[in-house]
Amino acid sequence: MDVSELLDGLNDKQRDAVAAPLQNMLVLAGAGSGKTRVLVHRIAWLMQVEQSSPYSILAVTFTNKAAKEMRGRVEATLQGPVSGMWIGTFHGLSHRILRAHHREAGLPEAFQVLDSDDQLRLIRRLLKNLNIDEKKWPAKQFAWYIGAQKDEGIRPKDIQAFDINEQMMLKVYTAYQDACDRAGLVDFAEILLRCYELLNTQPTLLRHYQNRFAHILVDEFQDTNRIQYLWLRLLAGANSSMMIVGDDDQSIYGWRGARIENIRQFLDDFKAETIRLEQNYRSTSTILKASNALIENNAERMGKSLWTDGIEGEPISVYAAFNELDEARFVVGKIKTWLQGGNALQDCAILYRSNAQSRILEEALLQESIKYRIYGGMRFFERQEIKDALCYLRLVSNRNDDAAFERIINTPARGIGEKTLSHIRDCARHTSQPLWHAAKAILAEKHLSGRAANSVQQFIDIVEQIDDQLLDLPLAEQAKFAIERSGLMAMYQAEKGEKGRARVENLEELINACGQYEPPIEEEFSSPLQGFLAYTSLEAGEGQAEEHEDAVQMMTLHSAKGLEFPLVFMVGVEEGMFPSQQSHEESGRLEEERRLCYVGMTRAMTKLYICHAESRRLYGQEKYHSPSRFIRELPQDCVEEIRIKTQVTRPVAAGRFSSAVTHAAFEDSGYNLGQRVLHAKFGAGTVLNYEGSGAQSRIQVSFDDVGSKWLVTAYARLQPL
Ligand code: ATP
Ligand code: MG
Predict the structure, then answer these.
(1) How do beta strands 215-218 and 241-246 pair?
(2) Which family does it belong to (predicted)?
């Protein structure tokens, strides 16, 4: 491709960025404005026009998929393979540097990378050595703490622990680090930190890389954390030029330590020039206008405007589903129509806030034999916590299930080590019986040490107790009992952070799934539990499309970053789901949720559906949710509301953006939006919302002292102020 072709297909601003002289640059621009495209063309420009060697280029992105795609796009633009260029993720690139200089980094040649399971096992072992009770001090909490420190570049020696909690964390962090260093192990966060420290303490090495990487380019910069930023800043030598592209409105990993401030810091540290791209090429003007209006509700913004000369397109359809099943039915119906129109499934994406939401959608797609692929997350019945729980149920229903036995004998940890386990395995092999029976035999023959014997006995008791209790209980109660009695629920509840929260939600969702399960009439199962287990094993393997097959793309909003699809469904857009309940508790979280909504909406090229359900069974409970505030923040003229056509017996939500309906509903209530009212218990507040009618109606009031609450209007006895 010659130079003019390189600049063809770019607008003036994009050209300015691609063809800029060698300097530090920030390309700050909204979604779909061609930031990634600029980055790719810049790489080609550097090679073709600046005659830079591929060896001198370092390109960093956030996921392996994005890195692979970027390489593909560079090669397509240059019409040939590029070798010697480093394109990768922060972790991938750091790992590569550590491998090359392991000795200087104080690591053995064959240093091992710990995954999160390995890490937990190691922490557990240490807790035992230190006589720390894991029930009080869960291993996951330490793992979370250690990761967070490393992401900030903080070593044990840098920490001053003031309270008992911090002292405990520090003690384990220190022991953990010692153990890792002795054995030559590095966890995920360590890879980056260790690489940073290596470069920081070895001037010759640093100079080598600084000289080599004359050009550093970073995509999705808004999601870098502190150590990633420091790493970049170190690698950029006096003569390097750095181009970072990003969008402060799409920063969605604050909860994992990402800092939007890094953008300002970069401008300061690098005296960089800012180039703003303002034309969006991805979405219809309707989708763009609505997304822009949404994000304007955030206060902390660097400020950008985005326009398109694309077609207006269809309005955004908002579907008020009766419940989550109805929502799934609606989505699948629309996908069928899409398919009948001769379109490809892969052009269609379903985006949700949390992984637990995928199950109902998976089922609905399976039922219609529509292929799907869950991207960047595990399918529901394949998730660790779900498998753990199912293995208890499997062992309860069949003591000969050796795979289940192996998985859960020491989950949650109850002090059964590899030695005991191999003892049981040997016995099983010699006597040709399943592990369960072998374990009982060994116990009877008193072949185990007192402690090991106790632990194995404890495990056997738990399984038998669950079995005893199951008689006559409905399936959901069985699952609930098993999840609690096994200790799984407590174990995951103790796990700190977003991941732990997600696992607990998933377990609750499993109970919910049991509640909704109806055994197929045509199949004979000796119990509902057996039927359910058969169904889950089918579920875990089938449905998901093969690599080459055309399939609907399903993923969380987080993993949709940077991608685009002609047809997008955002589901579960309800208060309490999205924004999530927790976002009310931590400052800044609501704005981050809004950015996530902005990311979701701006994935859509041609058509966007937003769905919310009046009631939703999730996490084991039926909840009534009002539509997300994010829906209310969309301009009315961009939105078309699809109403429920079925006969509804539950309270009907008032239309939240058809103002006529809202007003009518409010008139019916006798209150006005924004009106000040007094409640006998909660005190003074402001009316926020209203739904339903007559005896069923509910009113939302934001109380000055106790926050926002939904009240049944008839009982609230609010006095106008
Ligand atoms: P995000 O913020 O979501 O990562 P982005 O700013 O990186 O978005 P790109 O993915 O690079 O945007 O581009 C969005 C879409 O617009 C792509 O399909 C891209 O090919 C197209 N595009 C970008 N610039 C132009 C242009 N000048 N002419 C035509 N199409 C363009
Ligand atoms: Mg991009």
Answers:
(1) parallel
(2) Belongs to the helicase family. UvrD subfamily.
